[in-house]
Amino acid sequence: MNKMLIDFTNCPENRLLMYGGGNGKKKGIIYEGETYMLKFPSTVRNSLEPEYSNSSISEYISCHIFESVGIETQKTILGTFNNKIVVACKDFTVNGFDLKDFASLKNTIIYSSENGYGTELDDILDTIQTQEVISTKLLEEYFWDMFIVDALIGNFDRHNGNWGFLINKSEGSIRLAPVYDCGSCLYPKLNEAGMKKILMSEEEINERIYVFPTSAIKYDNKKINYFEFLNTTDNTACLKALNRIHPRIDMDKINLIIENTPFISGIQKEFYRTMLAHRKAKILDIALQRCERITKTLEQKPNMARKSIHKIIDDFNSRDLNNIPNTINNYKSKH
Question: With contact defined as beta carbons under 8 Å apart, do 160 and 235 qualify?
Fold first, then answer.
């Protein structure tokens, strides 16, 4: 990469900026006259010597992937701080806007069966439908659009505390916040040796497509398996998001993002390209084919009762799940 690498070590610090969250240390700095949050990688203790996760790299690439499909996303820059790779995330709480997470909104639904951080899907969707501070349609589309991209990049930690809204109390206004906190995507705990091992084995690749990572969101008290959910759901808002987002996924753009990412090796680039290509082909492409078959069938019977619609979808699910290769079923039986 020809761009000059950025060293944030001597940037002025804004000590009044304090950030929550559990994924690594954070500090506020001023870079080129604007406020950024520096995110430091967490430590992975899986060897005799402590190693640092690739969460900074994951944050950078994943945010750029979100941006590439037309979803407003926090601006990120990779650099170093005291010779450690960090990601600088531009502060979007400016001009009187404060960030409020979805959990805060969920807590206002006083009859909800869970607290704000409960991640049961039905409870989340009920909050989206019940709340009265922002357009239900806008919020529902945002949630499912984000879910589809999270499925692509393998996000295992999108919970109610890391997406939300920007609120301006003096103006009495609210809008959706840019997507942020994507450090738990793209297998951040894998070191280069682990990536190389996976690239040499189709079984290792498939295990990380069909079995894990799962979503942090739960359905029937079980973490959602992206492949299984997208190939069985009858949630029309989810299926519409799949139809909406899938055409915007440009693998050439995504591969260019990876190629231009500083600090990463050729093996890392190959790993990210390979896993994203497999996740798109084996999760999103397959789910879209099912979605198109269901849509075509329903279009032929526009006045069908909802009960009959569910029956058709159940029939599709039965046929599709029977076609899952035995190796995938074996993976599932082991976990």
Answer: no
pLDDT band at residue 327 using 50, 70 and 90 as cut-offs: very low
Which residue is associated with the tokens 């991209």? 149
Beta-bridged to residue 90, according to DSSP, are 36
Strands 84-90 and 34-39: antiparallel
**pLDDT tens digits, 153-192:** 999 999 999 999 999 999 999 999 999 999 999 999 999 9
The predicted pLDDT at position 1 comes to 41
Record the pTM.
0.89
Number of Cβ atoms within 10 Å of the Cβ of 194: 14
Residue with tokens 């090796």: 265
> Quick check: 68 pLDDT over 90?
yes
CA–CA separation, 65 and 141 (whole Å) = 18
Average pLDDT, the chain: 87
Question: Domain coordinates of the chain in residue numbers?
Answer: 6-94+180-334, 98-176
- Contact between 141 and 100 (Cβ < 8 Å): no
113: exposed, middle or buried (Cβ count in 10 Å: 0-12, 13-18, 19+): exposed
Fold of 6-94+180-334: 1.10.1070
Confidence of residue 320 (pLDDT cuts 50, 70, 90): low
The backbone torsions φ and ψ at residue 9, rounded to the nearest 5 degrees and listed phi first, read -55, -40
Domain 98-176 is found in CATH 3.40.50.1220: no
Contacts 24+ apart (CB under 8 A), 230-237: 230/151, 230/283, 230/284, 230/287, 231/286, 231/287, 231/290, 231/317, 231/320, 231/321, 232/317, 232/320, 232/321, 234/309, 234/310, 234/313, 235/125, 235/144, 237/140, 237/141, 237/144
The pLDDT, as a whole number, for residue 322 is: 52
Specify whether the CB–CB gap between 207 and 67 falls below 8 A.
Answer: no
Helix (H) or strand (E) holding 84, with range, is strand 84-90
For residue 252, which phi and psi values (nearest 5 degrees)? -65, -45
pLDDT at residue 2 tops 50: no
